Amino acid sequence: MADDLRAQPAMLTLVRESRGMTQTDVAVAMAEASRDAGTQVSQGYVSKAESGRLPVTGERLDLYAAALSYPPDLLCLDPQVHGVGVGLIHHRKRASLPVGALRRIHAELALTRIQLNGLYGAAAEENLEADFPRVELHDLVTPRDAARTVRKRWGLPAGPVVDVVRSAEDAGALIVLRDLESDLLDAVSQWTPGQAPLFLVNSRAPGDRCRFSVAHEIGHVVMHSEPGSGPEQEKQADAFASEFLMPAKDIRAEFANGVNITKLASLKRSWRVSMSALLRRAMSLNAITEWQYRTVIIEMSALGYRTAEPVHVPLEEPCRVPFLVDRLMEERTFTTEQAAASAHLLPEDFVRLYREGNRLLSMNPPRR
């Protein structure tokens, strides 16, 4: 370890939150990680370190890193200088998500940005400018208009979007599937100026919900470059996702002859969105009557479909980041240790996050 390494206070807070730990948890873990069983570390020490009132260097830096299971060099990076930025964070979550869990997921998003910037740098590749149009909403421009603009910009034909994740990646987004350790948040996104939009998508959600969540986050990135009313922006992002995935003209035609459970299941197979979403969309477009809507909802409830719908929709797999890692390790012959160091991760975490389950060698590479 270099003697001149010194932890950055903001990074100490960020990595602690990414582990879902309190300051007391860190103090206990540092004491447990110490070779000297008698070493005592207090919550006050961690508080002073995070506020910058106490330097963390030398053996204490190694101990801090061991307690948090990150390499020491990561703790010495300034988040603002190394790619986190101040871009507005959006998320599709439920109101019951605890604040602590949200802070952990936001920290994971920030660290994912640092990891990817490190991998791109090691591969000597640039994040190309993203083709995500900015659409300013006003009285004459609605979320539906924004969705139509994006579909046209990306050359998507009428009908279902074949692969939402791939479409966003082809437009320059970085999308990473992660187990976010909660069923109360489906996705989180950030578009830092000068970098590609980054989406962190919860792998716990079923495929149809993930498609809607990614479309929802695309709507945020396109429409919301400034903070605003949370509930209002969420409604706008949902409206964008509905039009993006289920264009009004096409959905009206699908329900021209009425609706029943069998038809909804068939439509789910082709549109790859939930039966409930299709039904709500048809109702909002006046393609079915309120009586038809209520009749089908009652039948779905009786069959248990409100909590577990039939028809499996496969999870869409991102490929841009896995292909980057494959190129780094296969073409540039990086070892796991070298690649992990580039991502500022311990080797075991690098393998868990970026190599396990990588099935992309048989797939077509992304356009970008």
Task: Report what the structure shows.
The protein is mainly α. The chain folds into 3 domains: 1-78, Orthogonal Bundle (434 Repressor (Amino-terminal Domain)); 83-245 and 319-368, Arc Repressor Mutant, subunit A (Orthogonal Bundle); 248-302. Helices cover 51% and strands 6% of the residues. The chain contains 17 helices and 4 strands. It has a 4-stranded mixed sheet with strand order 1-3-4-2, with helices on both faces. The chain is elongated and about 75 Å long. Mean pLDDT is 91; it is low at 359-364.
Can I get a quick summary?
With 368 residues, this protein is mainly alpha-helical.
Indicate the topology.
Layout: H1 9-18, H2 23-33, H3 43-51, H4 58-68, H5 72-75, E1 89-93, H6 99-122, H7 143-153, H8 164-170, E2 174-178, E3 185-190, E4 198-202, H9 207-223, H10 230-245, H11 248-254, H12 261-271, H13 275-284, H14 290-302, H15 320-331, H16 336-342, H17 347-354
Parallel strand pairs: 2-4
Antiparallel strand pairs: 1-3, 3-4
Query: Would you tell me which CATH topology of the largest domain applies?
Result: Arc Repressor Mutant, subunit A
Helix percentage range = 40-55%
Rg computed from alpha carbons, rounded to a whole number of angstroms? 23 Å
N- to C-terminal distance: 37 Å
Question: What percentage of the residues does DSSP assign to strands (E)?
Answer: 5-15%
In N-to-C order, the SSE pattern is HHHHHEHHHEEEHHHHHHHHH
- Describe the global form: elongated
Contiguous uncertain segments of 5+ residues: 359-364
Q: What is the CATH class of the largest domain?
A: Mainly Alpha
Number of helices: 17
Strands of the biggest beta sheet: in what spatial order?
A: 1-3-4-2
Task: Report the average pLDDT across residues.
Answer: 91
The CATH level-2 architecture of the largest domain is identified as Orthogonal Bundle
